[in-house]
Write a structure and sequence with these properties.
It is a single chain. By secondary structure, the protein is an alpha/beta fold. The chain has one domain (3-80): 3-Layer(aba) Sandwich (Rossmann fold), CATH 3.40.50. It is 42% helix and 20% strand. It has helices at residues 14-28, 44-48, 51-59, 68-73; strands at residues 3-8, 32-37, 76-80. Strands 2-1-3 form a three-stranded parallel sheet. It starts with a strand and ends with a strand. 19% of the residues are buried.
Length: 84
């Protein structure tokens, strides 16, 4: 079975939704997947003062952050990043 790591960064949730769709497609094709986010680097006071950003951070608090072990585990890695 192919192992696919889907690693994304999403500030407001759009890239997260795309990552979820990619994961669904990979699973439907028979892959084992890991949906992972990158660590937030913005200070708490920056994202905490933006209601949309704060909501997304809270909604995805259960999504694990990617580690080097995830990269070694995967046969394929898909990255999702915002346009900025």
């Amino acid at each position: 079975m192919t192992k696919v790591a889907i690693i994304y960064y999403s500030q407001t949730g759009t890239t997260h939704l795309l990552a979820q769709a990619i994961e669904e497609g990979a699973k439907n094709a028979g892959a084992e997947t890991r949906l992972l986010k990158v660590r937030e680097t913005a200070p708490d006071e920056v994202w905490g003062n933006n209601p949309v950003w704060k909501q997304h951070v809270e909604e995805t608090s259960g999504v694990k952050e990617a580690t080097n072990d995830d990269l070694e585990w995967a046969d394929a890695i898909i990255f999702g990043t915002p346009t900025r």
